[in-house]
């Protein structure tokens, strides 16, 4: 059977389609622990049936144990294969049992804590199962999704050191489909073979799929390990003795490295280097990390690299040759050698694209009579496993040329264009003497440039290195994207924010509405921050409510005047306390304001709020505008002097006081700083002195020039009193 699987002759019908009859039976023979192909006894149906009966019984027992709630109940709709009815719920409970076996108990040994954790785990598994092969209608059935969830939950419960990891659902789905495709309904009587009917019974689809999944995970589980396994130390005779398991040698203590990282490093650094040194050297020079592609290839067993029919055909040969799945690492090497002509001339970004989107050979390239390309991979992996030499790698290249029409010669990579050199070359060639372009054809050498210093050489080396690795191209695309987004960023930053506004006063908007995102996509940072803000606001309101509740309950009834009112207020406080408890248990963010405080307190708060609003409106009301009184006009005393050598100067008044003010006597009064034009040649002044409150005092200049004494001045010897304060 193994040779027929390698030769692609295992099934009578073409196995190009998704469903192939008899595939699950072959997998049961290849993967079962006690299957006839791994023992010295002659193959028989009774031998394999005995092993399958044991696994089915174990699955039923695990399902009854792990899906049972601490109170003895099961969730509605659960299907237990082989059981006519669910076990009855136990109704006997002691007082001690209620202290620990209680959903509201905070006891450390409360079994409900583990039950709630298992419910959360099933929700996570359900999210991954719902997106399993979305293009296939078979996996959209709710009943099938429930069975897949139960199988994955049982595996994670039994293997607690590994638990459930993302990707296991894509390993289980093909196994479940193959078993379901070969299943025979109980009411179908066309199949007369009793042993075949029991082997492919429709009742035990989930149990048989779980058995196959356990066998596959026996080889794949090491690639899902994410933490170091705990070592059980032997108990010491001394209570205070400390066990330290330190290996011998100076380098005995080493950091933990996950097995999947070790396997990926071994594939590229050891296996590929020994079979194809040229490809290994190019991938090392480009900086390709093996974990980028190796983790997905190994954990999912190539279900992402090929379509599902081809992946299941690959599993046929892989399960037949190596049930431990150690051959998978050599399959990865054969896959790398097959696409070497695309990897070697490519740069880092193109190599990454090719590895993450593995190209399958087209039907036009496959030669007539050639085996299937997945079966050819298994044959090549076996050849590399037996002889890991460069000669074996060359033989794989020859097979790929003969069967898949892949040339042996590696295509020449396109020349890397240096940024900024083409323009200088054109100008230099165009500026040659005589303009002879025919003589310069094929000679693009530049005239010798001046010798560069060390900084210029380092910068040029970094630029060329960035061009070869594609970093410059990526950086320029990022800069272009940033320049396109600058207007939106500027408009966002231009939003005016008042000093009293905080960051929480602005609404947090998501990149995408929650209704548009699939259920398995994690929440964004904006959603988490918004939820935290809502929780803080809710807790603040609950705290204010609890403050009122405590104050109401602490009131003394003995000295109260209205005891009925006080009793009613305490009753309302208890109802509000019950509502606060329900809110905290149900994690509700929307609160009912009428249930946080009593009716009387709510009415008083509304009145206080209304009064405060009226006082705030009154305080912000603007007072009436009162116009200032008109100032009296005065005349400059210097205008009386007839000094012909001095020119008239006029001071421009402010624009808001230039208009004259009419007095009640019919005369026009001007502001003191508003100087009116006067004529020094006229004997009479422009404004009569009777309009002034008193005659203006003489200045020192007029006294020295005219030698006269004013009537309101008392002559003093050398004492000047222009304001008449000393008379």
UniProtKB/TrEMBL annotation:
GO cellular component, one term: cytoplasm
Biased composition (Polar residues): 436-451, 659-668, 675-684
Keyword list, A-Z: GTPase activation
Residues of the Rab-GAP TBC domain: 105-322
Matching InterPro entries: Rab-GAP-TBC_dom, Rab-GAP_TBC_sf
Natural source organism: Crucibulum laeve
Entry protein name: Rab-GTPase-TBC domain-containing protein
Annotated stretches, region: Disordered: 409-454, 614-727
């Amino acid at each position: 059977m193994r040779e027929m699987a390698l030769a692609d002759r295992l099934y009578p019908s073409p196995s190009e389609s998704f469903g192939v009859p008899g595939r699950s039976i072959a997998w049961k023979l290849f993967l079962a622990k006690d299957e006839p192909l791994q023992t010295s006894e002659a193959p028989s149906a009774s031998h394999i049936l005995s092993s399958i009966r044991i696994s089915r019984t174990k699955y039923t027992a695990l399902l009854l144990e792990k899906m049972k709630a601490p109170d003895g109940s099961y969730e509605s709709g659960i299907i237990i294969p082989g059981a006519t009815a669910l076990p009855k719920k136990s109704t006997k409970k002691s007082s001690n049992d209620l202290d620990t076996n209680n959903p509201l108990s905070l006891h450390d040994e409360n079994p409900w804590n583990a039950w709630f954790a298992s419910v959360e785990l099933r929700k996570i598994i359900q999210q991954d199962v719902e997106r399993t092969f979305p293009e296939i209608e078979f996996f959209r059935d709710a009943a099938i999704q429930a069975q897949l969830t139960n199988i994955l939950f049982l595996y994670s419960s039994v293997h607690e050191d590994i638990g459930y990891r993302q990707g296991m659902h894509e390993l289980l789905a093909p196994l479940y489909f193959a078993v379901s495709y070969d299943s025979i309904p109980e009411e179908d009587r066309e199949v007369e073979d009793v042993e075949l009917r029991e082997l492919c019974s429709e009742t035990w689809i989930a149990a048989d799929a779980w058995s196959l999944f356990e066998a596959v995970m026996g080889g794949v589980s090491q690639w899902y390990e994410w933490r170091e396994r705990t070592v059980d130390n032997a108990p010491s005779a001394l209570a205070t003795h400390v066990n330290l398991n330190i290996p011998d040698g100076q380098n005995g203590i080493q950091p933990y490295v996950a097995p999947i990282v070790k396997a990926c490093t071994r594939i590229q650094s050891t296996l590929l280097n020994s079979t194809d040194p040229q490809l290994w050297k190019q991938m090392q020079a480009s900086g390709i990390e093996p974990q980028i592609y190796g983790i997905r290839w190994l954990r999912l067993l190539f279900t992402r690299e090929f379509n599902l029919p081809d992946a299941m055909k690959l599993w046929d040969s892989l399960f037949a040759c190596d049930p431990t799945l150690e051959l998978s690492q050599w399959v990865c090497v054969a896959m790398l050698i097959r696409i070497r002509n695309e990897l070697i001339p490519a740069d880092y970004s193109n190599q990454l694209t090719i590895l993450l989107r593995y190209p399958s050979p087209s039907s036009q390239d496959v030669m007539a009579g050639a085996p299937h390309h997945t079966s050819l991979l298994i044959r090549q992996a076996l050849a590399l496993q037996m002889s890991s030499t460069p000669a074996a790698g060359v033989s794989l290249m020859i097979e790929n040329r003969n069967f898949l029409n892949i040339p042996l010669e590696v295509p020449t990579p396109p020349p890397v264009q240096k940024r900024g050199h083409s323009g200088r070359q054109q100008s230099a060639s165009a500026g040659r003497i005589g303009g002879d372009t025919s003589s310069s054809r094929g000679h693009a050498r530049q005239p010798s440039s001046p010798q560069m210093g060390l900084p210029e050489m380092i910068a040029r080396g970094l630029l060329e290195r960035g061009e070869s690795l594609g970093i410059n191209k990526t950086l320029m695309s990022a800069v272009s994207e940033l320049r396109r987004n600058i207007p939106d960023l500027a408009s966002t930053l231009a939003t005016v924010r008042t000093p009293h506004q905080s960051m929480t006063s602005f609404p947090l908007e998501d990149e995408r509405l929650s209704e548009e995102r699939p259920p398995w996509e994690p929440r964004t940072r904006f959603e988490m921050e918004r939820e935290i803000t809502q929780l803080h606001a809710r807790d603040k309101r609950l705290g204010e409510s609890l403050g009122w509740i405590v104050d109401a309950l602490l009131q003394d009834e003995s000295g109260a005047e209205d005891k009925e009112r006080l009793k009613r207020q305490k009753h309302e406080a208890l109802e509000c306390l019950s509502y606060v408890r329900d809110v905290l248990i149900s994690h509700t963010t929307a609160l009912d304001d009428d249930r946080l405080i009593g009716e009387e307190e709510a009415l008083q708060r509304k009145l206080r709020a209304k009064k405060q609003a009226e006082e705030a409106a009154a305080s912000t009301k603007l007072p009436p505008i009162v116009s200032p009184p008109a100032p009296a006009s005065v005349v400059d005393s210097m205008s009386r002097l007839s000094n012909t050598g001095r020119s008239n100067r006029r001071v421009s008044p402010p624009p808001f006081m230039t208009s004259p003010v009419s007095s009640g006597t019919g005369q026009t009064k001007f502001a003191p700083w508003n100087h009116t034009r006067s004529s020094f040649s006229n004997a009479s002044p422009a404004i009569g002195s009777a309009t002034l409150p008193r005659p203006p005092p003489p200045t020192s200049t007029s006294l020295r020039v005219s030698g006269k004494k004013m009537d309101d001045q008392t002559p003093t010897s050398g004492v000047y009193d222009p304001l008449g304060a000393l008379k």
